Amino acid sequence: MKPTDQQILNSKHANNSYSNYVSYLKAEGVKGSPRGLPTRARYNEQLQFPATTMINRRGKVPALAAMEALQVIAGIFDKDKIAEVAPNAKLDLFTDQSAYGPRIASQMPKVIEALNHDKLDRRAVVFFGRPEEVGTAGLPCTLTAQFQTVGQGIYGTFNMRSSDGVWGLPYDIVVFGALIQAVAHCTSRKPLGMTLNLANAHLYENTLKDAEVRKAGVTFLLDFPKHMLRWEELEMWASNEIYGQPWGTWGPPGFKFWVNNTEKKAPTIEDYL
Questions:
Q1: Model confidence pTM above 0.85
Q2: Alpha-carbon torsion angle 86, 73, 101, 194, nearest 10
Q3: Which residue from 229, 233, 251 is spatially nearest to 242, judged by alpha carbons?
Q4: Contact (CB, 8 A) for 186 and 234
Q5: Other CB atoms within 10 A of residue 228 CB
Q6: Exposed, middle or buried, 238 (CB in 10 Å: 0-12/13-18/19+)?
Q7: Domain limits of the chain?
Q8: Separation between Cα atoms, residue 49 and residue 42, nearest integer Å
Q9: How far is CA 177 from the centre of its chain?
Q10: Per CATH, the architecture of 5-260 is what?
Q11: pLDDT, average across residues 69-79
C-alpha cells in the first residue's frame, strides 16, 4: 500500500495552508486571556484538509498522533500508552475531556450502518459531548462529526467550539483523517477530505515558538486489513496495533507515513463533486 501521487502532492499544500493559518492568527488574532492564559484568537474560522495529511510542525511527535488516532478507532483511552510514546508531552492535557474514543465508540457502528444503507444519508453524525457537560470544563473541544458520501468517497465535517492551533489542531487533523479513512474503508469508498468549523480558533502566546512548520509534507495511511469491513473489527485491529505490535519512532506497522517535498494545490470539497 502506498499513497497516490495526488495524496502526496496534497500533503505539501496542506502543510503550507497550516503555516499560513498560524501566521494569520499571529498577525490578526484578538488578544485575550481566557482562564488567565494569554491567547490570540479569531472567530468562526473554516479550514479544509485532505484526509491523509499530517501537519509537519516543529516539536510534533508522529507516534503521539498515531496513538491518539488508533485509540479513537479502538474506542479506548489509555493514558499510560500515550505517555509511553510521548513521555515529554503535556500529559495533564490528556483527560476524560479529550478521550474521544470512549465518547463515540457506540455511535460509529451506526454511522457505518447508515451510510451502507443509503450512501447519501445526511444523518451519519456523532456527538462528542454530553448534555450535563454544557457550560463545564468537561465539555470536549470537538462537538460533532458528520460523514457524507461525496462522489465515490467519504468527506468529514467537524465542528469545534475551541481549537488550539499548536498543541491541538495538528493532532486533531490526524485523528479526524483517521476516522474518515476508517469510515471510507467500512463503506468501500475512498477517503477524501475534511472541513473544520472552528468557533474559537486561537494560539496560546507561550506556544508560538512551536508553530514553526517544516517544509516537507507528510502523508499518512492506515493499512486496514481488506477483509475487516465492520467497525467492531476495526476496533480490534486498532487495539492490536496499540498493544500487539512493535512501535517505531513514527508508530506501529499499520500506520504508514510518507515524507515528501512536492508542492501542489490541494482539493476542496468542490473538487470532489
A1: yes
A2: 90
A3: 251
A4: yes
A5: 15
A6: buried
A7: 5-260
A8: 19
A9: 5
A10: 2-Layer Sandwich (3.30)
A11: 97
What pLDDT sits at residue 266?
A: 42
Distance CA 175, CA 181 (A): 10
DSSP string over 155-221: EEEEEES-EETTTTHHHHHHHHHHHHHHHHHHTT-EEEEEEEEEEEEEEEGGGGGGG-B-SSEEEEE
Cβ-based neighbour number of residue 40 at 10 Å: 20
What long-range pairs does 40-45 form, CB within 8 A, spacing at least 24?
40/202, 40/203, 40/205, 41/200, 41/201, 41/202, 41/203, 42/201, 42/202, 43/199, 43/200, 43/201, 44/197, 44/198, 44/199, 45/21, 45/163, 45/197, 45/198, 45/201
The amino acid at residue 13 is H
- Label residue 227 by pLDDT band (50, 70, 90): very high
**Helical H segments across 78-130, by residue range:** 79-85, 100-104, 108-117
Q: Reading across the β-sheet that carries 255-260, which strands appear in turn?
A: 53-54, 217-222, 255-260
How far from each other are the two terminal CA atoms of the chain, in whole angstroms? Answer: 26
8 Å CB contact between 42 and 30: yes
All residues at 6 or more sequence positions from 106 whose CB lies less than 8 Å from its CB, including other chains? none
Any idea which residue has 501537519 for its cell?
Answer: 55
